[in-house]
Amino acid sequence: MLTVRELVEEFNFEILAGKEGLAKQIEDYSIKRPSAELVGYLTYLTPKRIQIYGRTELGLIQQMEETTRRVNIANVMVKEVPCIIVTRGLPVPEELIDLANERQIPLLTTERSTTRLFYLLIRYLTNHLAPSTLLHGGLVDVYGVGVLITGESGIGKSEVALELIKNGHLLVADDAVEVRRVDEEHVRGRAPKRIKHLLEVRGLGILDVTTLFGESAVRDEKDIHLIVHLEEWQEGKEYDRLGIDPPPTTEILGIDLPKIIVPVRPGRTIATIIEVAVMQNRLRHEKKVPILNL
Q1: pTM score of the predicted model
Q2: What is the CATH number of the domain that holds 107?
């Protein structure tokens, strides 16, 4: 969860009123400009959203009769509102300040334009409030494709990631991946803060990838496009040798992602197989041909 206090610290907002409400939780990553609501249309008020007041909203307030101004603002500034942000450093009406203190709604101000603030807030709130989960595995950017490498502990996921990094690809996370759903079609992964840019290889210990390979060998986050599952080679098990059928899928946070099962045994260069699998996956999407299960 995210509090208004954390939002203030992140964006360096000035607090004008309503300091008692800084502990309020922000639950909705959508944002509201309450222009229609200020003139009485309250059907779609959505009170749990952050409210933004720019030139339009403050202009409407200035044009209201004094007898109705406070009533109209009070109908919009309900207690459920997590906070209100005034943009461009515009003068703030006294009614807003009084109601913010009375109802413990943090009233914030910024010099940023409304358009700029919308962009920054939506990006920030989506990252922090989108549905999320923690997965065991590694995430590597291979040729621009986010590859989630999964498998039982000790199968060699970190060693494969190390080989891919040596081949010029980018590490996002090792051992644990924080995954969040950013929209209706994409999930994005990143490393937990405590293991960011670290890689654990049995026999070598914990490696700092940025120290060994430089900052260009890592990235902070990446959309996941493909899952590669490593498993021990099982004699007698039927593996797809032709690649005629499309690969199976695995659901992560409601989104289906293609999954390739790669059997591991001595002599197989798994990193190279993953590179080819990525190229096949890209080709499949570009030319609608089936992906090979390697």
Answers
A1: 0.68
A2: 3.40.1390.20
